[in-house]
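Note to self: keep these together.
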Amino acid sequence: TVGSTACEQCSGGHYADQIQQHSCLACESGKTHNAKHTDCDPCSAGKYAKRGASMCSYCTPGKIVNDGSDDCEICDPGTYAAFGDLSCNACDAGKYPRPDRDGCEDCDAGKYAVVGDLSCKTCDAGKHPRPDCDGCLAVLASMRSLGLIRAFSVG
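Structure:
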């Protein structure tokens, strides 16, 4: 107020960097006010803030933030991000990303997926998924890998 000598602290997301400054400045995107509201500090890794935001926030699952950004970006197809992840990750073999890209689902029985696949696939006729679900084997090779058939030689 005019004629007042009392100082008022700036509101969240704003700061005053000079003594007796009459107005507060908004922190830029990717930053928020420090404890004394005298400057702005960058958001910690994995968090974002819009211009003038009172706090930095984590992205929702399925999204990540680039440092200094004011918004989250959805993970690329074939990848996912859990809450607080700093980067998007490819699903393991035998799994595919959920539609909202917040995690992975197991392939149904009889299907497979390699790392980074968007969905599970069915093996061609006469083949079955490998035990680790990352590809297909011919029926005979599949039975041998499961120990159902043993190779032997006649001598």
